[in-house]
Specification:
19 strands, 6-stranded mixed sheet, alpha+beta, 39% helix
């Protein structure tokens, strides 16, 4: 059966080639006619389409030689004995006689397979190729429309007919993008294109009749001259900005058309921070290294090397100094998406406790001759000062001694959540008692933070506690929550700096002494000016934290810890903001401050100082001439001033989202002044380009008598 199958496939291939060779001359003749009539562009399309039809027809005719055809062809040979259908039957379903006949035919065909291929139709092939070639030659040699006919011998040449207007017969546009983009040279027949900024464009145009002059007319008035090179007209231009253009010739083209050339600018690179995951990082005690990781991407590639700017901020308040240094980094990965990694040694940078390390990566792309740069966001590593470290250690030591009086806001939240889980296991009285104890801790913490705002501690002046009255670890905190001395002592680690209502053991109060009266009844920390100086924003955040603590305390004291948790979480968030509120602005404005002229300090010289008076810049009103053009477009009897519109478009092209669409609408109406749809399109494009007037303030309505008396009262209080 293998040899029979091979003979079958050879017959199919022979049928395919016969059909293709008969139809290819017809395809060539049709292509030549189309190219002569409509140009090379349409001829190429006709050639591709006809070849596809030839291939499809040949394949269809070859597949018609199926199994039934094979059986019929085998039965025509005596070797098959009219039993070729047994070759494709199931041997298990055949009777013994049919099986013997099947074996006999199979052996005979394997020994001498028949030739099933059709004979070559030489006569028809010769006719097809001769006819096709003759039609192609006649189409190519036929004179072009408008060309003068050759003069016959012996006859006078007739007077030359007027020159016919030329038409675009074929076009070719070669686009060579800048070398740094890595894009290969591409050639297209369409004159509309989308190219990278800086690409070199090369036009090659052929006309049905040679014009005397030709050029490319841009919509902004620029003209690119076409020069003749044999039968073609060529021009070169470097794409710098988006434009519309058309082909102008003398005599003019029969069907002028507007072409669009979109120029895509090279976007600057972008930088993304991968590690750390936040811009402000608080260093842990003993941290010696800081790992940074960035990812830079660009449409045409990022440079392999980048520069890491490091700024070390030292000091506090107004005595802040900056020290900058630059580190070169090598990237990894593909050119369009590189990664830059660096692990900083804090000791080598000279960073010590209380300093800030500010890092910023600067990358550039491969654009030539001038590369574009981009910077990442500033990353800040804040190293804790020695005072902060000592304070943290001291707080941990005190917590071991008096854990009930130094609960942090986070610990209060943990205790409240743990108490909620034990609700079903505890009696109601015990649950309320424990919730009240947590509320006392919340109150003590609120008073502790309230001292930074100059708030008065709750409770009256009482003598200092004795050793017998000090609470122990077994004494509930609720029994001492009203004791002002315990509140103040707990807030300051067991020492009351004010000692309200008491004197030292070695001094007795003197009746009538002003200092003793002030120390006994006066309180200096209830004045905001005497408290720790904080900026207004930090004071507002701390005040919000105290408000949330107050609400949390009220719910806890009433035995409702689940209602207190939202307030406690908000208070914790505000406290974290206050802890991070110092020197966050250094990364942005610190290194960019201008140097201070020491010679002009304290002299009162105000020369070269700008005017700080704020001025209001009026918004430009829409150009009345453009509004007039928009109104004229609605009236078909009027002629709009398209020249004024083109000049306005050239001045305001940068603020329009799609200036080429508006310019195309202007040119279309210029070419066809009577086109109603062109006027509608231009009017719609112009409406999008006009600026909308800002809404004006509405005049306030006249108030009624009661409202007028209220406004008069407000005026009187000023």
């Amino acid at each position: 059966m293998n040899r029979v199958h091979q003979a079958w496939q050879r017959a199919r291939r022979r049928r395919w080639w016969i059909t293709a060779l008969l139809l290819v001359p017809v395809a060539l003749a049709l292509t030549a006619i189309a190219a002569r009539v409509a140009g090379i562009n349409l001829g190429s399309i006709v050639l591709l389409a006809t070849l596809l039809v030839v291939a499809g027809t040949a394949t269809w005719r070859a597949r018609r030689l199926d199994r039934h055809w094979l059986v019929r062809q085998l039965d025509t040979h005596a070797i098959a004995q009219d039993s070729a259908d047994l070759l494709f039957a199931d041997t298990a379903a055949l009777n013994p006689l049919q099986q013997r006949q099947h074996a006999r035919i199979t052996a005979a065909l394997q020994a001498a397979p028949p030739d099933l291929r059709a004979a070559w139709p030489k006569r028809w092939l010769a006719v097809a190729w001769c006819g096709g070639m003759l039609a192609a030659v006649l189409a190519v040699g036929w004179p072009a429309p408008g060309a003068p006919l050759p003069a016959l011998p012996g006859r006078a040449t007739p007077a030359a007919s007027p020159a016919q207007p030329p038409s675009l017969q074929s076009s070719r546009l070669r686009i060579q993008a800048p070398a740094y983009t890595g894009q290969a040279l591409r050639t297209q027949t369409a004159l509309d294109a989308k190219v990278v900024q800086g690409s070199a464009l090369d036009w090659s145009l052929r006309f049905s009749a040679q014009p005397t002059q030709a050029a490319l007319q841009l919509h902004d008035g620029t003209r690119i001259a076409l020069r003749r090179d044999g039968e073609a007209w060529v021009a070169q231009w470097k794409a710098a900005k988006p434009t519309l253009y058309r082909i102008v010739t003398e005599p003019a083209l029969t069907t002028p058309r507007l072409y669009r050339l979109d120029v895509v600018p090279d976007r600057p690179p972008s930088v993304r921070v991968i590690a750390p995951d936040r811009t402000l990082v608080l260093a842990t005690p003993g941290q010696r290294q800081w790992t940074l990781q960035f990812e830079a991407s660009d449409d045409f590639g990022v440079a392999a090397n980048a520069e890491l700017h490091l700024t070390l901020a030292q000091g506090s308040g107004e005595n802040i100094t900056f020290r900058e240094q630059r580190v070169a980094l090598a990237g990894t990965g593909p050119a369009t998406q590189r990664r830059f990694t660096r692990t900083l040694d804090l000791a080598a940078l000279g960073a010590g406790p209380g300093n800030d390390v500010i890092a910023q990566l600067q990358v550039r792309d491969n654009r030539t001759p001038t590369a574009q740069t981009a910077q990442s966001t500033s990353l800040i590593l804040r190293l804790p000062s020695e005072e902060q470290v000592l304070g943290t250690d001291l707080e941990g030591m005190v917590k071991k001694t008096l854990p009930a009086y130094f609960r942090s806001q986070r610990q209060i939240i943990i205790d409240a959540e743990a108490l909620i889980k034990l609700r079903r296991q505890l009696p109601a009285d015990e649950f309320v008692k424990r919730s009240d104890a947590i509320g006392v801790d919340q109150r003590i913490l609120r008073l502790r933070y309230g001292q930074f705002l100059g708030e008065e501690s709750e409770g009256g002046a009482k003598p200092p506690p004795t050793s017998d009255s000090l609470p122990t670890s077994d004494t509930p905190a609720a029994e001492h929550d009203e004791d002002h001395a315990h509140d103040t002592a707990s807030a300051r680690g067991g020492h009351d700096d004010h000692e309200h209502g008491a004197t030292k053991a070695d001094s007795a109060p003197v009746f009538g002494a002003a200092t003793d009266v002030l120390s006994e009844y006066g309180h200096t920390h209830d004045h905001a000016e005497a408290a720790t100086l904080l900026d207004p924003q930090t004071r507002a955040i701390l005040k919000a934290a105290l408000d949330q603590m107050w609400s949390s305390e009220g719910e806890l004291r009433q035995g409702r810890p689940e209602r207190a948790l939202p307030f406690a979480y908000k208070a914790l968030g505000f406290i974290k903001q206050v802890q991070q509120a110092e020197r966050i602005y250094l990364a942005r404005v610190g290194p960019e401050l201008p140097p201070i002229d020491e010679n002009r300090r304290m002299t009162g010289d105000r020369a070269d100082l700008g005017n700080r008076a704020s001025t209001i810049t009026p918004v430009d009103a829409p150009d009345p001439a453009i509004v007039a053009v928009w109104q004229q477009l609605a009236d078909t009897r009027s002629t709009p001033d398209l020249d004024a519109l083109s000049q306005w478009l050239g001045r305001h092209q940068s603020r329009l989202s799609d200036p080429l669409s508006l310019a195309a609408a202007v040119e279309e109406l210029r070419l066809a002044p009577d086109c109603a749809s062109c006027r509608t399109t231009l009017r719609a494009q112009l409406w999008r380009a006009l600026q909308r007037p800002l809404p004006q303030l509405e005049r306030r309505s006249t108030p009624d008598p009661m409202a007028q008396r209220y406004l008069d009262a407000l005026e009187g209080t000023r």
